[in-house]
Amino acid sequence: ALKNFPPANYLDTNPNELMPWGIKFGQAVNDLASAIRAEYKSEAFANKMKNHEDNYLHRHRRNKKLIARLLENHSKLCVVRLDLHLGKANNEHLSLASARKHISRFTNNQRHNQLFADKVAHVIKLELSHRRGYHFHVFIFFDGQAKRNADYYANEIGHYWINTITKGNGS
Fold first, then answer.
1. How far apart are alpha carbons 112 and 170 in whole angstroms?
2. What is the pTM of this model?
3. 135 in Cβ contact with 129 (< 8 Å)
4. CA distance linking residue 132 with residue 135, whole number of Å
5. 52-69 pLDDT per residue, tens
6. By the 8 A CB rule, do 85 and 135 touch?
């Protein structure tokens, strides 16, 4: 039932209006609600949610340990937070493979880029949204004794992402 429900805006549609696939709009909405309810109550969905929660907790614990270790080893940290977005190709969001290729290039190139000198760690989280497609939430930790102006480095790294990594197709 979910595959047959159109992505158009039907908010003002009469419930008795016949849909292109031969059933009334009201019945199509009810079928959709039933399909969502059935999926939500399924064991497969419960397992996916449990897996998602376990992964979240694992990442959370790992990131807390990383930050604790950084604070133990460095008297000061300069933390840069960025949202790195990918543009669209032919008005469509880029693929997961393309997103992974871009972030891999971003992290690999850091070894040879003076902008990332004194980097002590990073945390990157990939997300997918309907509006923006694949994008990354990034925290880069620098030795605070060597780098102090997080805003400056955020701006410079953002320009590097846009101009070098995505070749003008990112934000």
1. 21
2. 0.71
3. yes
4. 7
5. 898 889 999 999 999 999
6. yes
8 Å CB contact between 86 and 135: yes
Residue with tokens 């309810």: 37
Q: Tell me how far apart the alpha carbons of residues 137 and 155 are, in angstroms, rounded to a whole number.
A: 15
For the chain, the straight-line distance linking the first and the last C-alpha, in angstroms and rounded, comes to 37
Q: Are the beta carbons of 80 and 150 closer than 8 angstroms?
A: yes
Q: How far apart are CA 85 and CA 164, in angstroms?
A: 13
Residue recorded with tokens 């460095």: 74
Alpha carbon of 151 to those of 80, 86, 145: distances in Å?
Answer: 7, 21, 16
DSSP 8-state code for residue 95: P
Distance of CA 126 to the CA centre of its chain: 4
Q: Round to whole Å and give the CA distance between 93 and 62.
A: 30
Q: In the predicted model, what is the mean pLDDT of residues 86-114?
A: 79
Would you say 84 and 136 are in contact if contact means Cβ atoms under 8 Å apart?
yes
Q: Tell me, rounded to whole angstroms, the distance of Cα 103 from its chain centroid.
A: 12
Question: Strand 88-89 to strand 133-143: parallel, antiparallel, or no bridges (unpaired)?
Answer: unpaired
